[in-house]
Amino acid sequence: MTMGNDTLTIIDNRTNITYTIPIKDGAIRAMDLRQIKTSPDDFGLMSYDPAFMNTASCRSAITFIDGDRGILRYRGYPIEQLAENCRFLEVAYLILNGELPTAQQLAQFEAEIKAELGVPENIKRIIEGFRYDAHPMAVLCSTLAALSTFYPDAKKVRDPQNRRKQIIRLIAKVPTLAAYHYRYSRGLPYVDPDPTLSYTGNFMKMLWKGLEPTYEVNPVIERALDILFILHADHEQNCSANAMRSVGSSEADPYVSAAAATAALFGPLHGGANEQVLKMLDEIGSVENIPAFIEDVKNRKRLLMGFGHRIYKNYDPRARIIKQTADRVFQVTGRNPKLDIALELERIALSDEYFISRKLYPNVDFYSGIIYQALGFQPEIFTVLFAIPRMTGWCAQWDELMGDPEQKIARPRQIYIGHGHRDFVPMDKRG
Ligand code: SDX
Fold it and tell me: Could you tell me which residues come within 8 angstroms of residue 40 by beta carbon, excluding any fewer than 6 positions away?
């Protein structure tokens, strides 16, 4: 209940001076704290917020999350409705442009994407410079940065039309980069993009086409990948989106900014968790071993990978949809026995006070890997399957940043805790 006076009154007990600071959209401007000084030459008050636990870095209209209620919406539309009714490129259009496309707008968008599916031949040479067992996320990071060298006009980051052209290229080419490395790592010939197929159907063909004259896209798998891609498309100011915005704020081009976002996603606490979940399930091995593993987690020897979230303190709505999608995939691929371990792990964790008290629930990464493995993917590529759809979210966040008049180069402050002034010590006086 508010009194209608959207201000904060602060009394600085060091000086007994009172300040009134405006509250807007549930926040105060950190810069409004700088007026709070103990003397005219005092720098003024800062806010200290390691890991930005309680700091809004931007105003965004793309994705809304209510972590307590387990709500996720892209441009206001609930993720459940989008996953049920849309194809991935339809949602990519929504995330980028703010509205669901008309049939004509979607056809135009798809045509622009299809025209940009190819990558320069040199990229194949770059991929071949890696060992066969190089981690796919490190290769993706490298090849995204390499694309920057082929599109020098991408440096015109203040030109909205140029940004849109580069965004189309990034969304179109990221599956090709991933599929080319997938084939190279298995000693298979490259399969070039096929614009006659859907976004996910083309990705499947580039990955899995054998010597058959015509690749038949399995519609159940194509639809499952569409849903998985929709669920992973954006998630507001997560670690990798922050990387995209931070690097992009220096006016670096979107290819190297996306390489930085990919690097952030690679981390096991972020997108790398889906790969770690499968390794964790493999290590647990059977339902009988779950209680001992849970004890290790509670004794802080391990993390329960795929559980917990900075924002969701309820069930991640994406995990629920992924669990439902698993059944559709298993009708084609056969049931992945790891699902039984995952379901029992979830059941035990959600009834254990350690997890309940910390509001730890399955997140998007807990079940996705089980589907990916059933589709024949090795765990090392799981995070690449996260990066492909998240490219849309990174691009939308970057585009919004570049169009935001309040934004400038990101440069946080610090609280200095090092030595005060001291003079140089010659070598013979040290130690
Ligand atoms: C993604 O931000 C996004 O939106 C990301 C993402 C997206 O779409 O972009 O949703 C994708 O990255 C999902 C998260 C994937 N990561 C994992 O599954 C890795 C395992 N999860 C944890 O590392 C952790 O839950 C984080 C990193 C996801 C969130 O960590 P926080 O918010 O910093 O929470 P915390 O580490 O402060 O944990 C609070 C408490 C601690 O216990 P106490 O010290 O209070 O006793 O919960 C415990 C933690 O030890 N805890 C866990 C745990 N996660 C938190 N204990 C065991 N297993 C876990 N997974």
Answer: none
CB of 303 within 6 A of ligand 1: the answer is: yes
- Per-residue pLDDT of the chain (431 residues), as tens digits, is 677 799 999 999 999 999 999 999 999 999 999 999 999 999 999 999 999 999 999 999 999 999 999 999 999 999 999 999 999 999 999 999 999 999 999 999 999 999 999 999 999 999 999 999 999 999 999 999 999 999 999 999 999 999 999 999 999 999 999 999 999 999 999 999 999 999 999 999 999 999 999 999 999 999 999 999 999 999 999 999 999 999 999 999 999 999 999 999 999 999 999 999 999 999 999 999 999 999 999 999 999 999 999 999 989 999 999 999 998 899 999 998 899 999 999 999 899 999 999 999 999 999 999 999 998 888 999 999 999 999 999 999 999 999 999 999 999 999 999 999 999 999 999 99
Residue count of the chain, please give it: 431
Domains of the chain, residue spans: 79-267+378-402, 273-374
Cβ(304) to ligand 1 under 6 A? yes
- Tell me the best of 307, 320, 357 to mutate to test the pocket of ligand 1, counting ligand atoms within 8 Å of each CB and taking the most: 307
Which residue stretches of 99-253 are H helix?
Answer: 103-114, 122-127, 136-147, 160-185, 199-208, 219-231, 239-248
State the DSSP code for 332: H
Q: Which CATH class is domain 79-267+378-402?
A: mainly alpha
Contact (CB, 8 A) for 54 and 66: no
CATH of the structural domain 273-374, one choice from 3.30.450.40, 1.10.230.10, 1.20.1250.20, 3.90.1150.10: 1.10.230.10
List CB contacts of 393: < 8 A, sequence separation 6 or more. 62, 63, 95, 233, 234, 235, 241
Q: What is the pTM of this model?
A: 0.96
Q: Which atom of ligand 1 is nearest to the CA of 297?
A: 57
Identify the residue whose C-alpha is closest to ligand 1 atom 21.
308
Cβ atoms < 10 Å from Cβ of 424: 5
Enumerate the active-site residues: 270, 309, 365
How many angstroms does the Cα of residue 265 sit away from the middle of ligand 1?
14
Question: Is the beta carbon of 369 within 6 A of some atom in ligand 1?
Answer: no
Ligand 1 close to Cβ of residue 309 (< 6 A):
yes
CATH topology match: 79-267+378-402 vs 273-374: no
